[in-house]
Amino acid sequence: MFFVGRRKKDKAPRDFPFPYHTEIELEITTLTNRGIGLGRVKLSSSAPKSESKSDNLILDTSELDTSTQSPAAGDWVVMVPFCLPGERVRAKVFRNQKNFSEADLVEVLTPSPDRVKPRCPIFGQCGGCQYQHFNYEGQLTWKRQQVLELLQHLADITHPVNPVIGSPEQFGYRSKITPHFHPAPWKDEEGGLSYPIGFLKQGTRSTIIDVPQCPIATDAINMKLTEMRSAVQAKLSRHEFKKGATLLLRDAEEGVATAHDAVIHEVVAQPDGQPPLRLHFLARDFFQNNPFILPAFTGYVRQQAVSTGATHLVDAYCGSGLFALSLAPAFEQVVGVEISETSVQFATENAKANDITNATFMAGDATAIFAGLAFDPTQTVMVIDPPRKGCDEAFLHQLFAYGPKAVVYVSCDPATQMRDLVHFKAANYHVTDVQPFDLFPQTRHLECVTTLVKEGNAD
Fold it and tell me: In this structure, are 181 and 212 located in the same domain?
């Protein structure tokens, strides 16, 4: 049995095509880019007219459209998490949308040969991981397929996607976690009271599931987590918290930092025998959370930037300087641009600490990000690594107005990256390489590096 848990019935649920908590059997044929199994069932009757206005499967704006027929044609889509393609499963429907249903997995009737035993005892309940039941080669194969489909469906671009570069460590790799807790006790299914400290429960927006240990986090983080949980739960039992909070555990050179404003150091290995970088920044700041894959990751970004023939580099969204300083030896001059003045200060100090003299950093205003940038755009390659939501319209407008020779686009959400590629196409940039990296084994997440060259500038 694999049932995730009890779900509340919608106040006014749709009863077509399945009444609430109907159990059905179906074959899973594919996965969405959110890691959810997708199957289809034949209906004995068509959807009511009020329920069949759309011919496409729409989960949300970042979900891949995988529907090929109208629900009225008899093929009804059912979404079931924690399944693998080729499996036959029994599932319990908890919600009917206009043209698909959502269900919880009850039992795997015919398992995939790629199915493995999850290492985490709460896998399927915790919302942090989606693929612990999937062997690692299967995870990599499927993530590549998802990037390929997103590229075609969202960007309307047909281009080869390189095999995913996997993480040297598939567990114990994550160097930062942020568990949450609520101040009031929660009543569990047996009626007892508890103070869970962990992550959101699968399929919920506010329920926290208790996570004593996280197998994808480093050993040092798990040791510190045990200590912090004991201290926090003691305070919770004494009602010392008026509101909930988010804890921070970040594995750094100094040990595991727990203070959000602590200044920490990260040693980043470099490819090709180059001396490692020693970077410092605030524990709360963004930094890649899989140090084991960073040499291959930054090395590839460097190789792609160099291959454009540019002599100058601009690192937008530069943060504390990871890409700018990793790539600096390959360019005549490098400028890092960041809206956060604090990050610019850390990046400047990091350049000095690593004896890198050809990299400077400047704080850009949101309305004039590249003001004062004197590089010839025809000799400049730009590296961009935006947040998960992708690039905003103002940033893209300014990037295209500047017109660099090439752009190496690093993204932690290929769906928003492919959305942005539509604008790059309109600005006369074409894709030359697409390389996914698995910085997040056991989860649906991945990084994708796409190289774009401006028409007329290719060597």
Answer: yes
The verdict on 231 and 165 lying in the same domain is no
Q: Are residues 290 and 425 in the same domain?
A: yes
What average pLDDT score do residues 91-108 get?
Answer: 95
CB atoms within 10 A of CB 121: 11
Tell me how far apart the alpha carbons of residues 258 and 320 are, in angstroms, rounded to a whole number.
19
For residue 64, what is the domain's CATH number? 2.40.50.140
- Do 220 and 194 lie in one domain? The reply is yes
Residue-wise DSSP of 223-241: HHHHHHHHHHHHHHHTT--
**Using CA atoms, how far apart are residues 36 and 53, in angstroms rounded to an integer?**
24
CATH code for position 304: 3.40.50.150
Residues with Cβ within 8 Å of residue 10, at least 6 apart in sequence: 20, 95
Contacts of 435 (CB under 8 A, 6+ apart): 161, 162, 165, 300, 304, 448, 449, 450
Answer with the residue of higher pLDDT: 419 or 9.
419
148 and 165 assigned to the same domain: yes
Structure tokens at 415: 């769906």
| pLDDT grade for 71, boundaries at 50, 70 and 90 | very low
Averaged pLDDT for residues 158-163: 98
- What total number of domains does the chain contain? 3
Bridge partner list, 27: 88
Q: Is the same domain home to 331 and 443?
A: yes
User: Do 96 and 190 belong together in one domain?
Assistant: no
**Structure tokens that stand for 162 in this block:** 């390189």
pLDDT digits (tens, 9 = 90+) for 259-314: 999 999 999 998 777 899 999 999 999 999 999 999 999 999 999 999 999 999 99
Instruction: Print the domain residue range for 18.
Output: 1-115
DSSP code, position 201: B
Active site residues: 412, 447
Distance (Å, whole) CA 85 – CA 28:
5
Share of the chain above pLDDT 90, in %: 81
Question: Is 191 exposed, middle or buried, given 0-12, 13-18 or 19+ CB atoms closer than 10 A?
Answer: exposed
Percent of residues, the chain, with pLDDT higher than 70: 90
Strands 75-81 and 36-42: antiparallel
Q: Is residue 110 part of a domain?
A: yes
